[in-house]
């Protein structure tokens, strides 16, 4: 299992991506831009 944390925008919102070899889950995406969605 892989867990990655990303921090975005001026509010420093945290977004987490949890994945394995086949599936992933995005936790608390907050406000997203096109770049973040990719």
Description:
The protein has one domain. Helix content is about 10%, strand content about 45%. It contains one helix and three strands. The chain is elongated.
Name its key features.
single chain, 3 strands, 3-stranded antiparallel beta sheet, 38 residues, 1 helix, elongated, mainly beta
Rg from Cα: 10 Å
Taking the alpha carbons of the first and last residues, their distance comes to 20 Å
Number of strands: 3
- Outline, from the CA principal axes? elongated
- How many structural domains does the protein architecture include? 1
H/E series, N to C? EEEH
Helix coverage percent: 10-25%
Q: Biggest sheet: strands side by side, in what order?
A: 1-2-3
Reported for the largest beta sheet, the result is: 3 strands, antiparallel
